Amino acid sequence: MEKYNLTKQEIEKILELDQDSINNIINILNKFGEKTKELLEKIKEIMEKYNLTKAEIEKILKKIEELAKCYCIKFPDKNDKNLIDNIRNLLNKKEKLSIEKTKDLVGKIENILRSVMVPEVRELVENKCDLTQKEIDKILEKIEEYTKTSDKFCRINIRDVRRVLDRIDYKLTPSEVRDRLERITDDDALILGVNPEVARPEWMVLTVLPVPPVTVRPSITLETGERSENDLTHKLVDILRINQRLKENMEAGAPQLIVEDLWELLQYHVTTYFDNDAAGVPPARHRSGRPLKTLAQRLKGKEGRFRSNLSGKRVNFSARTVISPDPNISINEVGVPEIIAREVTVPVYVTEWNIDRMREYIENGPDVHPGANYVIRPDGRKIRISTKNRKIITGNLKPGYIVERHLKDGDIVLFNRQPSLHRMSMMAHEVRVLPYKTFRLNPCVCPPYNAGFDGDEMNMHVLQTQESIGDARTLMIVQEHFLSPRFGGPIIGSINDHTSGLYLLTKNAEFDEEDALQLLKRAGIPLPSREGRKWSGKEIFSLILPDDLNTTFKVDSCKKCKECLEEECEHDAYVIIRNGELKAGVIDKDACGAFSGKLLNKIIREYGAKKAGEFLESSMRLALTFLMKTGFTVSIRDFEITENAEDMITEELRIAESRIDQMVDAYENGTLELLSDKSPEVTLEIEIMDILRNARETSEKIVENYLGMDWNHAFIMTRTSIKCSMINLTQISAFLGQQSVRGGRISRGYNKRTLPHFRKGEISAKSRGFIHSSYMKGLDPIEFFFHAIGGREGLVNKEIRSSQSGYMQRRLVNALQDLKVNEDEKVVDNRGFIIQTRFGEDGVDPAKSDYGKIVDLDRLVEEIRISSKSKFS
Which residue range forms the structural domain that includes residue 434? Predict the structure, then answer.
C-alpha cells in the first residue's frame, strides 16, 4: 500500500482477482512508477522555454487536471505523490506566455500524458507498417486486458482506443459487427429502446437482400419498341453480377487485393440500391449521366411516396379555377360557374317529401341546370342519366334511391387557397350559381385566404354527407372566422375601394335628399323617411350602424398632436359614435379594415358575427355605390408637384450633399469626430446615412404638403393606408433616395469604386447609390444600375424568407401535431404527458381575446365616458 499509494478498498479488489491479473497490475504500476520521474523532467524542460502569466498558469493547470482525471492516472512514487502541485511549483517561477505558446505547451503536456497512459500499446504500434494480423490481435487483446483489469489504476479513454485503431488501419467487417450485435441480450435491447420480439439489433446487418416484385419496378416499352427496365432492376442486376464475380474469385483463390476490390464494389452497389444520394458516396448513373432513382429517392421528399402519394391524394367532387371579385355577393357566399355546378354533384336521398323535385332534376338531365347526372338504386347500381333513359328513370324513381343532383344556390361547399398556412385558408361558403367561368369571391374575404385577383386560383370541395354539411355550416362558415387566432383581431374586413369609399363618404360628402335616397336604394339599405333636407356622408353611414353603439378611437390619419382636441380635431381623425350615430371622425382602414378594424372588432364582440357580416356587406355596397357615382381615378397629374416644391426639395438635397462633402473631408483629414466604439469608416457611413435619411423625411413632408389635398386620390390611398405609403409618393414625385444593400450604402463592385464611371476611392453620395431622380423624371443609366442592385437584393431576400418560413412551419406542424388542449386547459401530447400546465400560460384563446388582451380597459373607460355624455346631452 505504501509503495503504490493504494487504499484498503483497492487492495481488497485486487485480491479478488486471479494470480495472473494481480501480476499484470503490479507490472503496470511498476512501469508507471518509472515513468513518473521521466514525465516531470519532460514537463520541466518544456516549462523553462516559456514565460507565463498567472491566468495562463491556472488555465494550463486546469487542462492538466482534466487530463489527469480523464485518464485516471496514479503516480505511486512517494517522492512525486502530487503531480499537479509539482507542476504548479515549476510554473509559478515564470511570468508571461503568448496564447499560441500556451496552446503548444498544453498540446505537448497532453502528448506526454498520453505516452504514459498506454506504453505497451504504443510500443506495438510504433512500427505500424510492419504489423501482422497476430500483432493486431495482440494489440486488441492488450486493450481488452487494460479495460478489464485496470478499473481504477489506468483506465484507457475511448479516444485512445480510436487513435490506436486509426493508426493500425483496422477494418471492422459487417460480419464482425453482426457477431457483436448478436451478443446483445434481450434485456439490454429493451434498455436500448428496441423490442427484441419485433426487431433484433443484428437485423440491421443484412445477410440476404429482399427483391421487390415487378409491380414495384415495372418495365416500359419505348416508342421505338425497345424494352426499358426500371432503375431498381438495373441496380439488382449490378448486385447479382458483382456478387457472382466475388463468389467465383473467392472459390478460385484469387489474390486478396482483387477480392477486397470486388467486396468494396458489392458494398457500393448495395448502398446505392438503398440510397443513391448517400453522403460521401458517388451516385450510380445511367449512360446518359442521369442518377438512378433508387429506394430512398422513391420514399423521401416532396415527390416521394409519403408526401406525394399517401398524404397528397387527389379527390373527386372538387373544382379549381381562377377567382374574380364580386362585391354584390355575401361574404358567406362563393360564386360558382354554371359549367362547374352541372359537373360536380351532391347526393340526395329520395323521400316522399322530395320525390317530385328529384323527378324535375332527372327530367332536366345533365345538360340543364338545375339537373342531375346519376341515380343510384338501393342495390348500389349507378345509372347515368341521358336523354334516352330519363323518362324511364323518372317513372321508376322510389324512396330509397339516391339522386346525384347539380350544385344549386344555398349548398355548402369548402373553399380553399393554397398554400394552406392557417385555419382560415379553408372555410365553408354557400353556393351562388353564376354565369361565366371563374369563382366569384367577396373582396372582404381576401385577407384570410391571402388571395388577390391577379390570376390566383382556388379549390372548391363539395361535401357529400349531411353530417359534414352540418359541421361545415356550424363551424366553418366564413362569418365564424372574423377574429384571427393569431392576434385576436378581425382578419376579414374592408380593402382597397371599400376603404377609399368609406373615407370619402365620411370625410366631407354632402347630398341632396334625392341623391341620398338613391344612393341608399342602390346600396340595398332600407330607406329612412323623407325629411326634406340635405344629408351628410356621416349621417348616411350611421344608418348601417347598430342603434345603441357607443365607441371612440383614433384612425390612421391622426397626426399625433401634443394635445388631442377629440371632436374638434382639425384632421377629423378622432372617431366618436354615440347611440349609433357617427358624430366625428372619418372611417378608414383603422375602423373597418382587416387586421386593424376597431369599429368592426367592436361590432363583432358586442353584436355577434352575423351582425358584423351584415354591417360589412352593407358598408361595402354603400362605399362602392358612392365611388361609382363620384369616381375614384388616379392619373399622372395626381403625382405632379409645383415648381416651388421641386425647388425646396432640390435645396434640401444640396444642403445634404454639402454636409456629406464636409464629412468626407473631415474623414480624409483625420478630423472626423468618432462615434463611441466605432472606426472612422463605420462612423462616416453612419453619419452619411443619417444625413440622407433626414433629407428624405424632410422631402416627404414637402410632398405631403403639396399633394395632401382632398381631390388627390393618390394621397387619399396613402392617408387611408390602402396601397402605397408616403415613401412611394416621394419616390414617384421627388427622388428615389439612397439604395441600400444589407442595410448600408452600396460599396462593393469594381476595385475601389462601385461602377467604372467614378474615380477610384470616391465615397460621395452619388457614387454609393444615392438617386436624385424620381420615377416621374426617369433615371439615368448610373442610377438605373444602382436601382437594379437594390431591387435584386429585395427579390432574393423575399424568396429566401418565404422558403425558410415555409420549411420552418412544416417542421413546427410535424412537431406539434400530436399536442392538444384538455378540458382542464392543460396542453398534453398523445401519451398524456403535460407540455404546458395551462394553455399559453394564461388559458386565454387568442381568438376570444381583444388583440391579445383579456379586456382593453382604456377603450372600455372611454366608451363609458362617451355613453354618459350621450345620456346627459
Answer: 318-344+407-481
